[in-house]
Design brief:
The chain has a six-stranded parallel sheet, with helices on both faces. A five-stranded mixed sheet has the order 7-8-6-9-10. A hairpin with a 2-residue loop joins strand 7 and strand 8. The chain is of the alpha/beta class and about 250 residues long. The chain contains six helices and eleven strands. It has two domains: about 130 residues, NAD(P)-binding Rossmann-like Domain (Rossmann fold, 3-Layer(aba) Sandwich), CATH 3.40.50; about 110 residues, Dihydrodipicolinate Reductase, domain 2 (2-Layer Sandwich), CATH 3.30.360. Helix 1 packs across helix 6 and helix 4 runs parallel beside helix 5.
């Protein structure tokens, strides 16, 4: 049995993780902690993998503390930057265990991971590309980590293919055209009734390709969370891994 502790256990996502761990045949809940609880209660003796689902302002400190305590971590909180990821890598280089693992997921929904993968495959074949992400208004970051990750993948694929800048002659200060991530415009919609949705739009003269992923319920993320827990617990992925695609046969 994989002993799993959850940090952020009373949150919207954390409570679903607790239920998913309790329902899994190969995992058991060790500790369920929330804001203000003492993370030093989590140790290698009582926990194999920690699932961290909190808020962007807290997640880096939580992850660094958990690394120092010698436990493996699966992170679902978004808001990660290159600088923050480098701090995690530096902490892992000094971790108590040489094979210690941190996994960070821009998105745990299999549909979203596949949409991101398909977008990278399609990117070299289209002149234009834009990303639209749509979420409930309680989400604290914009654009979403998923959309940023998708745009980065598109930008890298376009650069590798030798494509130039996406055409755009709009005369504006940029505010209404969304955030530009590696040359790709990313637009964030916040609307009551939505959960988590992403559209990737590709265009050439006379044609368009739309890739869309919809998560209608937070339960859709749980198979991905459990997959990450199992992969991290296997010990086969030491160091920092970003993206659930590394755990899928793509």
């Amino acid at each position: 049995m994989i002993k799993v502790s959850v940090v952020g256990a009373q949150g919207r996502m954390g409570s679903h993780v607790v239920d998913a761990v309790n329902a899994a045949d190969d995992a058991e809940l060790a500790l369920a902690l929330d804001a203000g609880d003492d993370l030093t209660r989590i140790t290698p003796e009582n926990t194999d993998v920690v699932v961290e689902f909190t808020v962007p302002s807290s997640t880096l400190g939580n992850v660094l503390a958990l690394i120092a305590q010698g436990v493996d971590v699966v992170v679902g909180t978004t808001g990660w930057t290159d600088e923050r990821l480098e701090q995690v890598r530096a902490a892992l280089a000094k971790a108590p265990r040489a094979d210690q693992s941190v996994f960070i997921a821009p998105n745990f929904a299999i549909s979203a991971v596949l949409a991101d993968y398909f977008a990278r495959l399609a990117a070299p074949y289209f002149e234009s590309a834009e990303v639209i992400e749509l979420h409930h208004p309680d989400k604290v970051d914009a654009p979403s980590g998923t959309a940023i990750h998708t745009a980065q993948g598109i930008g890298a694929a376009r650069a590798k293919a030798g494509l130039g800048a996406v055409p755009d002659n709009t005369q504006t200060d940029g505010g209404s055209r969304g955030q530009v991530v590696d040359g790709v415009h990313v637009h964030a919609v916040r609307l009551r009734g939505l959960n988590a949705h992403e559209e990737v739009l590709f265009g050439n003269a006379g044609e368009q390709l739309v890739i869309r992923a919809d998560s209608f319920d937070r339960g859709s993320f749980m198979p991905g969370v459990l997959l990450a827990v199992r992969k991290v617990a296997s010990g086969e992925f030491p160091g920092l891994t970003v993206g659930l695609d590394h755990f899928l046969d793509l």
